[in-house]
Amino acid sequence: MATQDASLAADPMIGEESLGVTNGKIGMWTFLVMDAMTFAGLLAGYARLRWTPGSEWPLPIEAFGFTGIQLTALNTFILICSSVSMVHVLAEQMRGNMDRAKKWMLATIIGGLLFLGIQGFEWTHLILDMWPYLFDEGYEAAYSVNFAATFFILTGFHGLHVSVGVIYNVIIYLGLKSGKISKDDTSVVEIAGLYWHFVDLVWILVFTFVYLI
């Protein structure tokens, strides 16, 4: 027993993996599975409200306008590109090209910030110009409060995830820049990448459900 304890003290990496998967990766996968169930519940609630008889649910083209859908499609493309750049971060880190890894991470962060900026612009436009019934109690035209509520909940909850992801990526970038994250610490970047790819995948589902169908 004493020999085993001495071995563990000499090599702190022993016991950090189970079946070849790091504890950090298992933790992130566990979180993502639970988070995916939350998004699935929100999307299911959206579908239930939308296809309830008499819901007076507007068509996306009526609610957002053609330009609004195009703008969100561009925003979706930006987020997908940031996911691609995250792949390059890990690839360059594994090759030992840390300068390139830092540049790709910076591109990922900028992509996330652009997404949030465009979403903020969209919210402002919808609230002030497109949906007057949100603040006008005397508005008499037919509208669906459930549509606005589910829209802001879904896109806002996802936007919160993007914000957390941007902060997460900034921390990784600072670690790469300072040298605290080296070419051997690929699991750190890989775990951050899992979160960012999840955020990207969920947005594709939200965009399809809310803006296209």
Fold blueprint:
Blueprint (H helix, E strand, L loop, with lengths): L1 H9 L6 E2 L2 E2 H28 L9 H36 L2 H33 L14 H34 L7 H27 L1
Antiparallel strand pairs: 1-2
Structural description of this entry:
The protein has a domain at 66-213: Up-down Bundle (Four Helix Bundle (Hemerythrin (Met), subunit A)). The protein contains 6 helices and 2 strands, in the order H-E-E-H-H-H-H-H. It has helices at residues 2-10, 23-50, 60-95, 98-130, 145-178, 186-212; strands at 17-18, 21-22. The protein has a two-stranded antiparallel sheet with strand order 1-2. The longest helix has 36 residues, at 60-95. Mean pLDDT is 87; it is low at 1-15. InterPro entries: Cyt_c/ubiquinol_Oxase_su3, Cyt_c_oxidase-like_su3, Cyt_c_oxidase_su3-like_sf, Cyt_c_oxidase_su3_a-hlx. The chain crosses the membrane at residues 26-49, 69-91, 103-121, 141-174, 194-212.
